[in-house]
Model the fold of this input.
Amino acid sequence: MIVKLNFDSEIPIYVQLRNQIVVSIGKGDLKQGEKLPTVRQLAEDLGINTMTVNKSYGILKSEGFISIDRRHGAKINSTLTPGIDFKEKLDDELSLVISEVGLKGIEKKEFMDMCEKIFSTMKGIKA
Done:
């Protein structure tokens, strides 16, 4: 698993890690059922604190992207289903993104084309 963290970013490391794992699942780089590195191993590989990785894994688990078993470690969930909470979160986040897009002068067609292009690169999602 290739993870690139920006230590100068205002985005916390645990959020960057969480986001990169989600995108890797979406792109198909991480497959459903695939094991993730242990917290210790990933922390060592990235040069970060184990608590940072643990926090990312905890968020991913609570969001349903991964499951964690004491004996077998963390793995990508084989069934990913959206809940009502996720749809509400998505609505809020899309409202913000669309507002920013419009305020920055990007036309709807250009935005939709960008979305289509990105969506087409996501080999790990069932569409």
User: Anything to note?
Assistant: The first strand starts at residue 66 and ends at 69.
